[in-house]
């Protein structure tokens, strides 16, 4: 669901952030960033191309949410997300990096094992537990993110004295 919400939030600014008519035309992108940042979104600066890729990403995200051809939907979602992020790295934040990493880990986890279209179509019963390096990596990614975040907040006086809340709401 996070992937769907991410796309819906970005579609409002499709022309401004992802086309040559916007704030970061492809020529400027190429001069500022490494060519090792591949992007299908950068193949064309036209709005119609961005719409096609957004629709494809939305379809992959819906398939992933429903558990339809889950592994393929996860890989396609990840590839299109990386492509989108590489098209305009200026509008990204830490949550975008986390989403990319979690989708990558998810490609190696059997997400379609239960409560999915894939599970209903499968002849064999679902496994009770799934333990693998990928499941450990996915969980460790989330634990690391929260642990580092807590350590950084506890190292500053604003959080310990309680005045950080005032800054958050101002």
Give the tally of β-strands: 0
Alpha-carbon Rg, integer: 19 Å
Helix content: 55-70%
Q: What would you call the shape?
A: flat
Largest sheet: none
Percentage of residues in DSSP E strands: under 5%
Tally of individual helices: 10
Structural summary, described in words:
This protein is mostly helical and 170 residues long. 65% of the residues lie in helices and 0% in strands. The protein is built from ten helices and no strands. It has helices at residues 2-11, 14-18, 26-32, 47-66, 70-87, 94-106, 117-121, 133-154, 157-161, 164-169. Helix 6 (94-106) packs antiparallel against helix 8 (133-154). The longest helix has 22 residues, at 133-154. The protein is flat. The protein starts with a helix and ends with a helix. The model has no long low-confidence stretch (mean pLDDT 89).
């Amino acid at each position: 669901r996070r992937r769907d919400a991410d796309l819906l939030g970005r579609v409002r600014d499709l022309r401004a952030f992802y086309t040559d008519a916007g704030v970061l035309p492809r020529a400027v992108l190429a001069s500022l960033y490494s060519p090792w940042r591949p992007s299908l979104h950068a193949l064309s600066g036209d709005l119609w191309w961005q719409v096609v890729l957004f629709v494809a990403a939305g379809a992959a995200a819906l398939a992933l949410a429903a558990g339809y051809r889950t592994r393929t939907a996860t890989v396609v979602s990840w590839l299109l997300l990386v492509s989108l992020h590489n098209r305009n790295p200026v509008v990204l934040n830490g949550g975008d990096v986390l989403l990319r990493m979690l989708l990558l880990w998810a490609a190696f986890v059997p997400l379609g094992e239960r409560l999915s279209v894939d599970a209903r179509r499968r002849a064999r019963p679902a496994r009770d537990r799934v333990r693998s390096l990928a499941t450990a990596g996915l969980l460790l990614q989330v634990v690391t993110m929260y642990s580092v975040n807590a350590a950084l907040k506890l190292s500053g006086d604003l959080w310990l004295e309680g005045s950080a809340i005032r800054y958050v709401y101002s």
